[in-house]
């Protein structure tokens, strides 16, 4: 990433984590609707109905779907229970809507991790059992590096009981090479992302060729072990390298992209016969999610500004 883009990405990540800015935007009658126009490119909307509706549309076109009710770092037990109940309602409504093979993604801090890891585990088990009864799966997202041990511990406990729960690994963390080796002993699908959180150099690689190399090394290891893996990236260099190595044709592999980012590319892969998945989100806590999407690719800021002026452009579907 160029120096200017790198600085912009770091600034966006800092802004995303500033509670004062978030509160100011959420309470502003002028800023909130303006930024929501830009957010609509990356989220399905603020309600469960929005998420289900878009999921049905994309499933009808041949995509697999991952659905998430956005949120993390929930600050009270009451709110953790409310979040868990929303995920339960999402699983049930997706089933009632005749959606099949759905993955429900979540942050453990959304359902209790920051309050009580035991609560997060209990909620995860409840959600995983409900998902299993519908032939759905649960994918645990990864968060800041200081939470990694707790997240992996909960995943390992749950994965021993349920094969329909998976885990996300951030390639930029130096520890991930060792983590992957240990996770091969568990049945759940492993989703590989580059990593959206700002981490110090002693813990993580920056966006670079070195990071791309590590990303491919992790994917290679999983494919050689025939372990279920989700390649979650929009990076054309990685996509082309995976194609060159004939990884995209492996039965254990799926290609996952976020809703609103490179829809033409994921459509092209689907049309070529690659197993493709679109990651859909909904909810009012879209601020942090959108900041991360802009930070991953700072030129998206220009698109966001255009969407604020002409919001209809964000609603056009290229899938």
From TrEMBL:
<keyword id="KW-0642">Proline metabolism</keyword>
<dbReference type="Pfam" id="PF01619">
    <property type="entry name" value="Pro_dh"/>
</dbReference>
<dbReference type="InterPro" id="IPR029041">
    <property type="entry name" value="FAD-linked_oxidoreductase-like"/>
</dbReference>
<keyword id="KW-0547">Nucleotide-binding</keyword>
<feature type="domain" description="Proline dehydrogenase">
    <location>
        <begin position="53"/>
        <end position="283"/>
    </location>
</feature>
<comment type="pathway">
    <text>Amino-acid degradation; L-proline degradation into L-glutamate; L-glutamate from L-proline: step 1/2.</text>
</comment>
<dbReference type="InterPro" id="IPR015659">
    <property type="entry name" value="Proline_oxidase"/>
</dbReference>
<dbReference type="GO" id="GO:0016491">
    <property type="term" value="F:oxidoreductase activity"/>
</dbReference>
<protein>
    <recommendedName>
        <fullName>proline dehydrogenase</fullName>
        <ecNumber>1.5.5.2</ecNumber>
    </recommendedName>
</protein>
<keyword id="KW-0274">FAD</keyword>
<dbReference type="InterPro" id="IPR008219">
    <property type="entry name" value="PRODH_bac_arc"/>
</dbReference>
<dbReference type="InterPro" id="IPR002872">
    <property type="entry name" value="Proline_DH_dom"/>
</dbReference>
<keyword id="KW-0560">Oxidoreductase</keyword>
<keyword id="KW-0285">Flavoprotein</keyword>
């Amino acid at each position: 990433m160029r120096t200017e883009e790198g600085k912009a990405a770091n600034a966006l990540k800092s802004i995303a984590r500033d509670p004062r800015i978030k509160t100011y935007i959420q309470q502003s009658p002028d800023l909130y609707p303006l930024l929501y126009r830009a957010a609509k490119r990356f989220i399905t909307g603020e309600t469960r109905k929005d998420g289900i509706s878009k999921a049905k549309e994309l499933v009808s076109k041949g995509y697999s779907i991952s659905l998430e009710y956005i949120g993390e770092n929930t600050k009270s037990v009451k709110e953790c229970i409310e979040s868990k109940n929303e995920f339960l309602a999402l699983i049930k409504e997706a089933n009632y809507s005749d959606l099949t093979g759905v993955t429900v993604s979540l942050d453990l801090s959304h359902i209790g991790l920051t309050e009580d890891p035991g609560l997060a585990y209990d909620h995860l088990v409840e959600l995983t059992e409900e998902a299993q009864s519908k032939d759905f799966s649960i994918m645990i997202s990864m968060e800041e590096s200081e939470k990694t041990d707790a997240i992996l511990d909960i995943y390992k406990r749950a994965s021993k009981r349920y094969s329909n729960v998976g885990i996300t690994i951030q390639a930029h963390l130096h520890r991930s090479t060792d983590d992957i080796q240990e996770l091969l002993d568990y049945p759940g699908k492993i989703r590989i992302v580059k990593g959206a959180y700002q981490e110090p150099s002693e813990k993580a690689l920056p966006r670079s060729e070195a990071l791309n190399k590590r990303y491919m090394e992790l994917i290679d290891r999983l494919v050689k072990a025939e372990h279920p893996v989700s390649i979650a990236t929009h990076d054309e260099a990685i996509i082309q390298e995976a194609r060159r190595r004939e990884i995209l044709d492996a039965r254990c592999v799926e290609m996952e992209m976020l809703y609103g980012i490179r829809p033409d590319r994921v459509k092209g892969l689907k049309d070529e016969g690659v197993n493709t998945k679109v990651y859909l989100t909904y909810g009012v806590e879209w601020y942090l999610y959108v900041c991360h999407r802009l930070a991953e690719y700072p030129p998206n800021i220009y698109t966001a500004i255009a969407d604020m002026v002409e919001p209809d452009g964000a609603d056009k579907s290229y899938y």
